[in-house]
Amino acid sequence: MQKAGAFKSPPKTTNSSGKERTAGYEFEFTGLPMGEAAGIIASLYGGRIEQKSSYEVKISETEFGDFSVELDAQLIRDKEYESILKKIGFDFSRLNSKSSFENSLMELASSVVPFEIITPPVRLSDMVRLEELISELRRKKARGTKDSFFYAFGLHINPEVSSFEISDIADHLRAYVLLDSWIRDDAEIDISRRITPYINEYDRKYIKHLIDPKYQPDLQTFIRDYFIFDNSRNRPLDLLPLFMHLDEEFTESLRDESLTSARPTWHYRLPNCSLEDVNWSLSAEWNRWVLVEQLAHDKESLQKLCRYYLKLESSSIMGFESKWIDVINVWLKENE
Fold it and tell me: 319, 40 in Cβ contact below 8 A?
């Protein structure tokens, strides 16, 4: 398992406009009230705290932009419960205090769903500053993935893409699927997360389709195939926000999920959010992602590994995953 250290630079540090790339983060946790978490953010980075609702606090105008702290449950956060309860005859006008009702609902929900800190896009050169937030959350006894079997909490990383070329985007996904089993092993992805549907591995049939040397799709073919093979937002590398950014109308015609917004970023959902573990760090998780970008950038190695994956998979009756992890370990040693 990789240890904490410096944030490594990806091969391309600028976006398609030539500006320094950014990455946003989403931390899932419990054990700390939203207001206290918001106070930690403001104490570190400045800004103004605003209670948007019982389920959301915004910290605006920090040195990096706007943060938010939310209860990570769309049904409650977006008050969808109101329409549901009204349909069964619940009359909100009879409540003595709607805020008391919402506070009780939040207290109940927070025992089974996490809070979430959502950062603004932070420049690559500034990401080290987010380790300060991790340290303060840990000092205040925020609880993360490994604190309970029931805490399937994740860290989401949203790195801005460096290119909108479809060949480059496809190569990043190819690189990711080749590295997925190694990353899961090296990052010690918690069993509580493995058994949930949120980070389902890409199906082997889709992987073979994707890494076939003859597969050179245009954008709409690439998006259509993603859906044909039953991929959803619940993948360790979720491409739906990027697809929405690249071709919203076409993607909307294919998807049936509502929890996706258009963003010019990858949505990397795999890592644990182990705030309680002093050996866990953002830099280690980020650096695993950088390996994906390094492999995507190294076209010769990428093509070689794609061909070898297809050969090894077709000849392996059992034990393919452990064999493939060994292959990736060799590649890593050769590229240290």
Answer: no
